[in-house]
Amino acid sequence: xxxxxxxxxxKESRGWYLVEYHPPLRDSKTxxxxxxxxxxxxxxxxxxxxxxxxxRDWLNRYPVPLLVFAFDNMGxxxxxxxxxxxxxxxxxxxxDAKIRSYWGPLEDKEIPDVAxxxxxxDQLYSAFDYKTYAxxxxxxxxxxxGIKIGYVVLVAWLVVIPxxxxxxxxxxxxxxxxxxxxxxxxxxxxxxxxxxxWPKSSREKQRELEERLKDHYYYHCQMNPEGxxxxxxxxxxxxxxxxxxxxxxxxRKPNA
Length: 256
Known about the structure:
Structural class: alpha+beta
């Protein structure tokens, strides 16, 4: 199993935009840097200049080929059409130790393979928090086991334990037969509910009604997909804008 590392990104605030630097992923030739513009309207020339400046600064800090993007305060890729045909920038050090930068796509063979040297990468990013891919696999397996164990514990708590307690009560007190029968009833009912074979309660029927209403709304969304897309886009834009604003404020506070 590979023990390569997945690093936690580094985030910094520049006032009118945020930067988020991601070290290269396993088998990737480039690190990535995202600029997130936090103001409503930023001139394209300022965004281009910021991307080029950040490219140089981060390459000097971490000399690994870098891919730079810029996003607006709703999370959409910034359009730089009047200045640059492409909205992303790639840069790296050439054999003469000079920074080369290119707007737009490059062939894979044109990008130095510095980042494929994992020993060098791990030394370069030693200050970053990380988890190994082996640890991430273990975490995923642990979560799956936790879900299975949780189900078993739930069944034991709601079904098995009450039945055992009722049986013990019955053997210690013969007059407890009604309690035993009631406990059996509750245990069997809970078991059937967990398997979806017990008649539904009024609350469950209400939830089913809500689900049918959702299906009804979905049907009408299908009938008018453009209207639904506009509504969804407006909601997502507002949510994303609020999220970016909160993150920008959180990053500014330590520098205040």
